[in-house]
From TrEMBL:
Belongs to the DegT/DnrJ/EryC1 family. L-glutamine:2-deoxy-scyllo-inosose/scyllo-inosose aminotransferase subfamily. Its cofactor is pyridoxal 5'-phosphate. Pfam families: DegT_DnrJ_EryC1. Keywords: Aminotransferase, Pyridoxal phosphate, Transferase. Coiled coil: none annotated. This is DegT/DnrJ/EryC1/StrS family aminotransferase. One of its GO terms (molecular function) is transaminase activity. InterPro entries: DegT/StrS_aminotransferase, PyrdxlP-dep_Trfase, PyrdxlP-dep_Trfase_major, PyrdxlP-dep_Trfase_small. It comes from Streptomyces olivaceiscleroticus.
Length: 225
């Protein structure tokens, strides 16, 4: 059952608020709107890119009926703490996988991640967790946010590395969902993150080339103060 179906089956709709992440695609937000409810955006944990339970608790009101968490990039949302918030306020807590990501090949991706984490110097590598499946290998580019990250990405692509920006803007900056918000961890993640390729088809030589390219470029960027 999809998110909108889950909400409708729980009787959640017009007049209800549903807490959702602003970091990621708009699919979850769209599902909330289809159910007739109002999406309310909460900030993320900067290490996992999933909803921060403390931030969720901060936006709960008397109209809040549910929380929709998304497991992001292979990180698992902190469902234990989210359920604690849900029980405290009488909320439905529903978790969903990241849209459009296949779970197969986790062991190969973990092996790639271990290799990259031990060798990358020009970027901040993902926080290692036992449950992390690395469905995307998302690093942070140091420097002055989006201008440096975008320049770094262009230079990597010029060296043949098929990197991409995973989340260009928060959902609340999209025209159809625009809100006057500033969620700092969400904003910073949109400005700094870059997904490096970890497809199963990658060869050891391609991984080595990617490491060399990142490490050569990393020295060009200085952290902002």
């Amino acid at each position: 059952m999809g998110t909108s179906g889950t909400l409708e089956s729980a009787g959640i709709g017009i007049g209800d608020e549903v807490v959702v992440p602003a970091f990621g695609s708009a699919e979850v937000t769209e599902a909330v709107v289809r159910a007739g409810a109002v999406p309310v955006f909460a900030d993320i944990d900067p290490d996992t890119y999933c909803l921060d339970p403390a931030a969720v608790a901060d936006v709960v009101t008397s109209r809040t009926a549910a929380v929709i968490a998304v497991h992001r990039f292979g990180h698992q949302a902190d469902l234990d703490r989210l359920h604690e918030v849900g029980e405290r306020h009488g909320l439905l807590v529903h978790a969903t996988a990241e849209p459009g990501v296949a779970p197969a090949g986790a062991e190969r991706r973990r092996a790639y991640a271990t290799y990259l984490a031990g060798r990358l110097r020009g970027v901040a590598t993902p926080t290692e967790r036992a449950e992390h499946t690395y469905e995307q290998y998302v690093v942070r580019v140091p420097g002055n946010g989006r201008p440096d990250r975008d320049a770094f990405a262009r230079m990597l692509r010029g060296k043949g590395v098929a990197c991409r920006v995973p989340v260009p803007v928060p959902v609340y900056r999209m025209p159809q969902y625009r809100r006057d918000l500033l969620l700092p961890h969400t904003e910073r993640a949109c400005d700094e993150t870059l997904a490096l390729p970890v497809a199963e088809s990658l060869t050891r030589r391609e991984l080595q080339r990617m490491v060399s390219a990142c490490n050569a470029l990393g020295g060009l960027l200085q952290p902002a103060f």
